[in-house]
């Protein structure tokens, strides 16, 4: 680098960037540790919670909600199916589409996992006012929109 190029840590927003990244890493590590007794990881919780909230999603719809490619979840879904947590059912209107549904065990596990997630959120953010939490969420949404727009252009 030449002397005229700025370095990342010289940027006035660098501290925010690092703080967001560290918070994300620590949230994932904490959630991973807390979910371990249920023998699931955060990606499993993401699938369970989405199917709990939006029963009957297709694999493509689920991937879109999770902001991942279909191939990213295509390895996880069969594992969850073998464990008896989810099942695939044909779509009544389009026989080419399979809809994802929670089994009774999957619904029960989702509820336990979401209780754990809620407890982690409460512990992590209890020292932060609701107004600060909402302000942070709004700032993160602006960052998400900017990054999504940049990725859409690529």
The span between the termini is: 25 Å
Q: Per the principal axes of the C-alpha atoms, what is the gross shape?
A: globular
Task: Using the CA coordinates, give the radius of gyration.
Answer: 19 Å
Q: What is the CATH C level class, in words?
A: Mainly Alpha
Strand residue content = 5-15%
The percent of residues in helical segments reads: 55-70%
Major β-sheet profile: 3 strands, antiparallel
Q: Could you name the ranges where pLDDT drops below 50 across 5 or more consecutive residues? A: none
Number of domains: 1
What strand order characterises the main sheet? 1-3-2
Give the name of the CATH superfamily.
Winged helix-like DNA-binding domain superfamily/Winged helix DNA-binding domain
Topology as a string of helices (H) and strands (E): HHEHHHEEHH
Structural class: mainly alpha
Q: What is the oligomeric state here?
A: single chain
Number of strands: 3
Average pLDDT over all residues: 92
How many helix segments?
7
Protein name: MarR family transcriptional regulator
InterPro entries: HTH_MarR-typ (IPR000835), Tscrpt_reg_MarR-type_CS (IPR023187), WH-like_DNA-bd_sf (IPR036388), WH_DNA-bd_sf (IPR036390)
GO molecular function: DNA binding; DNA-binding transcription factor activity
Domain HTH marR-type: 1-149
Written overview of the protein:
The chain has one domain: Winged helix-like DNA-binding domain superfamily/Winged helix DNA-binding domain (Arc Repressor Mutant, subunit A), CATH 1.10.10.10. 65% of the residues lie in helices and 8% in strands. It starts with 13 loop residues before the first helix and ends with a helix. The model has no long low-confidence stretch (mean pLDDT 92). The chain has helices at 14-35, 42-53, 59-66, 70-74, 76-82, 104-125, 130-153; strands spanning 57-58, 86-90, 98-102. α1 crosses α6 (104-125) and α2 crosses α6. It has a 3-stranded antiparallel beta sheet with strand order 1-3-2. With 154 residues, the protein is mostly helical. This is MarR family transcriptional regulator. InterPro entries: HTH_MarR-typ, Tscrpt_reg_MarR-type_CS, WH-like_DNA-bd_sf, WH_DNA-bd_sf. Residues 1-149 form the HTH marR-type domain. Pfam families: MarR_2 (PF12802).
């Amino acid at each position: 680098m030449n002397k005229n190029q700025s370095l990342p840590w010289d940027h006035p927003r660098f501290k925010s960037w690092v703080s967001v990244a560290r918070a994300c890493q620590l949230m994932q590590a904490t959630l991973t540790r807390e979910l371990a007794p249920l023998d699931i990881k955060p990606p499993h919780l993401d699938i369970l919670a989405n199917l709990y909230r939006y029963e009957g999603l297709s694999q493509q719809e689920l991937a879109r909600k999770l902001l991942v490619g279909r191939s990213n979840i295509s390895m996880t879904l069969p594992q969850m199916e073998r464990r008896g947590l989810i099942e695939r059912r044909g779509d009544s209107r389009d026989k080419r589409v399979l809809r994802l549904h929670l089994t009774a065990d999957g619904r029960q596990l989702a509820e336990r996992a979401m209780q754990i997630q809620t407890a982690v959120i409460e512990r992590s953010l209890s020292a932060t006012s609701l107004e600060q939490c909402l302000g942070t969420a709004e700032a993160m949404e602006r960052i998400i929109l900017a990054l999504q727009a940049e990725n859409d252009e690529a």
